[in-house]
Amino acid sequence: MAIEIMAVGGYSEVGRNMTAIKVDDEVIICDMGVHLENYISLTEDEDLVNIHPDELIAHNACPNIELLGEWKEKVKAIIPTHAHLDHIGAIPFLARSFECPIICTPFTAALLNSLITDAKIPFKNKIKVLNVNSSIKISNSLTMEFVSITHSTPQTVVAVLHTPYGKIVYANDFKLDNYPVLGTKPNLARLEEIGNEGDVVCLVMDSLYAHEARKMPSESVARAMLKDVLLGTYCEGKAVICTTFSSHIARLKSMVDYGKRMGRKVIFLGRSLHKYIAAAESVGLVKFSEQAEIVKYSSKVKSRLNKMMREGIDKYLIICTGHQGEPQAGLYKMAHGMFDFKRGDHVVFSSSVIPSPTNQRNRHVIEEKLTSLGVRIFKDIHVSGHAAREDHRDMIEMLKPKHIVPSHSEPDRMAALADLAYDLGYHERFIHLLKNGSILKFNGA
Amino acid sequence: MAIEIMAVGGYSEVGRNMTAIKVDDEVIICDMGVHLENYISLTEDEDLVNIHPDELIAHNACPNIELLGEWKEKVKAIIPTHAHLDHIGAIPFLARSFECPIICTPFTAALLNSLITDAKIPFKNKIKVLNVNSSIKISNSLTMEFVSITHSTPQTVVAVLHTPYGKIVYANDFKLDNYPVLGTKPNLARLEEIGNEGDVVCLVMDSLYAHEARKMPSESVARAMLKDVLLGTYCEGKAVICTTFSSHIARLKSMVDYGKRMGRKVIFLGRSLHKYIAAAESVGLVKFSEQAEIVKYSSKVKSRLNKMMREGIDKYLIICTGHQGEPQAGLYKMAHGMFDFKRGDHVVFSSSVIPSPTNQRNRHVIEEKLTSLGVRIFKDIHVSGHAAREDHRDMIEMLKPKHIVPSHSEPDRMAALADLAYDLGYHERFIHLLKNGSILKFNGA
Amino acid sequence: MAIEIMAVGGYSEVGRNMTAIKVDDEVIICDMGVHLENYISLTEDEDLVNIHPDELIAHNACPNIELLGEWKEKVKAIIPTHAHLDHIGAIPFLARSFECPIICTPFTAALLNSLITDAKIPFKNKIKVLNVNSSIKISNSLTMEFVSITHSTPQTVVAVLHTPYGKIVYANDFKLDNYPVLGTKPNLARLEEIGNEGDVVCLVMDSLYAHEARKMPSESVARAMLKDVLLGTYCEGKAVICTTFSSHIARLKSMVDYGKRMGRKVIFLGRSLHKYIAAAESVGLVKFSEQAEIVKYSSKVKSRLNKMMREGIDKYLIICTGHQGEPQAGLYKMAHGMFDFKRGDHVVFSSSVIPSPTNQRNRHVIEEKLTSLGVRIFKDIHVSGHAAREDHRDMIEMLKPKHIVPSHSEPDRMAALADLAYDLGYHERFIHLLKNGSILKFNGA
Amino acid sequence: MAIEIMAVGGYSEVGRNMTAIKVDDEVIICDMGVHLENYISLTEDEDLVNIHPDELIAHNACPNIELLGEWKEKVKAIIPTHAHLDHIGAIPFLARSFECPIICTPFTAALLNSLITDAKIPFKNKIKVLNVNSSIKISNSLTMEFVSITHSTPQTVVAVLHTPYGKIVYANDFKLDNYPVLGTKPNLARLEEIGNEGDVVCLVMDSLYAHEARKMPSESVARAMLKDVLLGTYCEGKAVICTTFSSHIARLKSMVDYGKRMGRKVIFLGRSLHKYIAAAESVGLVKFSEQAEIVKYSSKVKSRLNKMMREGIDKYLIICTGHQGEPQAGLYKMAHGMFDFKRGDHVVFSSSVIPSPTNQRNRHVIEEKLTSLGVRIFKDIHVSGHAAREDHRDMIEMLKPKHIVPSHSEPDRMAALADLAYDLGYHERFIHLLKNGSILKFNGA
Question: Is residue B280 within a helix (H) or strand (E), and if so which, with residue range?
Fold first, then answer.
């Protein structure tokens, strides 16, 4: 047998996910993301078009594709599993190094096209759309199957690579949510069936919350939290401003729904929200443009805010970017002059603080600023999209992989998933804690 | 003017709440609870009847009523605001030192009667029932009003003492939940009205989560979490065991509801659950005995469990005590031999770990034990019943008290509430961080 | 009696310390510092001379002297108690608003002169030098006494204001170190004597580590740690680079001493270190310029580093700035191109991370960078200069103040000191948790 | 080649260390310790003689020697590397299952003999003494070499097993301390020589503090901290009580030294301290019985304390057990009635809190108790005996092992050491995170 897996990015770190799977003489790449923190610190002052991929790699903002060496010529497909930047963000910069198509779900494709347009970089790879719960033949030997799974952005998939020697399952970012607010449920039946076929050689799996003894709560719990904060607090005469991930269409949907129940007009501010909403609408997931107003151009946000203030700010529910306190995002700009905050205005952070020192600092700064303006802050109106220990357990028990590779986190969390695998009876030889550059060979497995 | 407030218990500590309010020559006592950790460590091996109140006081298990000195003779009423042991638990031991009635809501009264019966100590004080959103004249000068509020046990009230010199508001344990699962909503209209009357001299207020920048989520969020765990995970053939606070009738209701949706028979195990359920049924809050089975006697739990195991454990949803890992409680006993746990059985902790070193240790021990048995653990399926910063802010803005006394926590949390009061424009002279034994005089206020 | 204390800066925050004491019709100001984080974020790109004091105040970088109102005209002296920027840094900008002299110890004066020169702002106030353990008459009614105390910079004093109504003791930044590496011991005899005189009306005291149950370790402990790291590790052929606070002359002395024991030439890099060393030498505290080389101009650092690399980097012990990872400091620049780090080079952080989100982020970035270069990091080779609980206890028991005002920290730490005061028998009326702008009146005290 | 390593105890947990090394047909056991927390909770109420080894194993208090299977018959030697109970404590119970000698340093042997006597269990294995920096031939193929290393008890060794196929190095508990207060320095020259011989197949290494970026400070730093607390605080008329690990002879020596400098008589209280001191004296390490008084029998402690109180408690420096707040230890008993604590008495905890929930709870209880008695607490007067990241790096670079096995901790810390190994260029195949029961085979290595 001749399957090899190379950890290219996102191993022993959070960000710039990329994994290469070599089967005989063919290579498949799963995900090709940016490291958000490094990427943002690099691109703040520059047009993307001016940044050479080597520079992105040098600053650990993109996966280091030089690690691929001779594999580079053999790549047959790039498979981004969902539309988050740490999984697709490097494609505009790096994909042209590979002579192969990109295969992804419709929402991911729509978003990717929009990124490519933004990047203003020539792009030649073909983007093939594959629906959830469908398969595509990549070569004579290899077939890619997309199994529907839940995460914090729509149309996320578990990528199952069928090879002559068995299956490789790549489940990098998921949770098992049987009460999703938007989109299809996890296809547990198919996952069990795959496990029962008995030939899963290796499972690569997001381990970010493997240390938490629970299942990750459903998005419907976040919806209940939002309802409580939006409908269950007194906000007459006050601004109510929500901020969350632009890619989190389900969360945005809850905001739109409750905004209407509040009797307020919902208004989305800024380019990033527009981009994701447009992608979601283009594939028929939502119809926000019928239910709400979307201010697409950043340059028009200020005048629209002024108009709202004149009309009565309590006629609106504002949704903006900036939940991590990013200095270039909407909320930051509003707090630093673009909006006239009044004592008692509400700001709802429908996200946690992604635990990097930069985010922690930026959130501290924005919260201090808002507090000094007398704003009421509602934090952590959120549940994560990443699996916790009991989701991992279910996944392993359904798929029955021979080998397990924890991904998408620092060594301590990867070790927590390894520990669960031990508990489930795995031997050390079949659990692999990798670092970028590691190659795993399944010899005679 | 001549109002004085004495911090008797629960100031700069969590537990044994008791506050005395002196108006001219009359004293009202709000709450008379035990310090659970100290109380349990003292009573483990002893019949309650053998414990002299002085011993309870010496071990800081009860409020030190000797601090009252001459006030002791002047007590006109004892007002337990809700049925938690840290608010009513010392009444069976200490109330007889006072020649006065106890005034509380029907559920609190039912529970108190049950505690008194258990304690097997002669009890002479009269228990008067006062409904939520009602008032009672205590003396010519003093009237007690109960305003409905939400917390993690039914019929909790904000106690408003009307005096000739203004009102004292005692809101020790509450959150503002507009989507409660059981019982009435907070009576915000009356709280605002009281504030508008403009004569609130002092607000004593639970500060446990004053450092958290949010409103405390509604009980409906905990209900959504429970639904997700009970209905959204695969548990065919497995035991499913839930544990929570016996006094948390709303949470128990959600468990009963979802147990039925799972097609399982709900069964409550043990005396403590029976006691609270009986109290709740006696006042018409729930009808669990029609919807579920209640095993009242601890001595019968083992045989009932055996019977369930014979009949098929997956026909049942078991609800038991022991969410803090207490060695004397149901879950601990089940894990140590009373129940034959199988790999893959579910245990749902519908509580957080109350952060005392004893609880942390006990929970660690029970989780290790359950994990070693292959049990799946679902932690923190819970929201707190205590106010967070935005609840506090609403309370202060509604009531507009002249003075603020943070209660029910360690100094750091009391300081967090003081800090909020500063932000709202209060001067240091009107914010009081007390310790047990402190007396506050409102001279010429 | 007519003493009032106004909290101007550094209350419920860490930074921009300033306290005003009014006695009848005369005002004394203790400390006038910057808030380092806010100050740096404001001044990064600007010449100091271009920044108007109002802007510094608007960004919370300086104490808000507008709070003083009518007191402003009555200020008789400004008393910086030591040479840290959060205690003296605002003097160049704000002192000119007051018609009064500045009184401080020789080292503080030397440093202040150097700050004034740097700021290039016209300065008119007279700087009077007062030695430790000496007094000066400020007016007919007021005398200022400097009692020697230990801290992390030389010639720190407890400022004792003698008034007709008793004494105000201002001990904002100190620890009790009986084994200092440099300078005089705390004058405990005088502190006890002051306490025995029985007329201390109020003690204002640094509460930063009041929650830690110990005395803060002596600087001699940090010296032992440095010895262990510098002499007890193998570093042949490797660079050894130490970084600490420029103002921490005692720590620098230990580095110089051990550098010589290592047989390496000690070299100080950069303006900030030069500034503090020059101040220390000017008052006879050390003679580093005879024992080490000091590269004064930032512009010459690079060429000097190049020369060291040519001569053999292991002939040197390098001391530079940048222990908090500040992007404008020496270590950061060295790690980003100015120095050619080799695998196995040593970097010794002789400081803790000052716990602000900005520092935590900057330290994270520099540590990641150094680690990626293969550098060995030695962290936390440090003890703090701030009192812990047992130092506070000694201070209170020696001075026996009537009132206590915790200063120099967030509310939780202030509350920890309040809690200690309670334990020592103080009543709530005599413990005051202030916020900037609070005024405390000792009426009839 | 035919070397196998079995993780028997102490892998993915802290405690009951035991590792078996099989070379062809011969097995060597390194360490055979108890899991202190589980051991104590089991033996509290029982005579050791009554506890069957199976019961100790069933409660995870001892290593599970049943995992050895057929290896059991092949054991040629048991090698406890130092005198801590988590490394030797199970020998009295389990060694008789093996037909082989025990080989250890003189101090370890002395202590082991004393444990055997205490256990009152028949014991048949021969105890052979091997000095540090010496070797012994175990069989025709195997030689054991003891290399001197530093730790928190005397005569700790790195065990180097010489086999026909290379060396296995077992360094389970060490730090690199070039300024030890007692005993020999680490034999770095020999460790480097072993590395240069180029045949270290595997290094098993304590990873407890692999996540801390520094070298662990020398014991001389703890000595400086003790000096500061004992000589640098005012304690006239007050009791001064120190507590630390009974096995930490170097720490005890510092206490004896400073006790004399204080002009106080040093007195050791209790059996445990006597046991370790007797062992240390029997091998010539110290002469405490000439410098101090040792109260050997627990039964005499109370009367001796009474005598001290009569004579003047400030004539003594008391050293007792109980630094973790253990309810059966000296300090706990003193605080609960055996000693008449006065306000202002000093208690010095010369240890950290070993981070298990039981210790945290016990320490919380004793600190609350002491604080309520007005006692002054000095915490964390301590440095650890375990390596930090820079010690690990030195060890790996000196020994140049082919394989690395992190030991002695939870998965997260093991992963931190694995991460360091990655940084040093190791491939995933050569780094092994084991769990009890794992077997590692070096096939064709």
Answer: helix B271-282
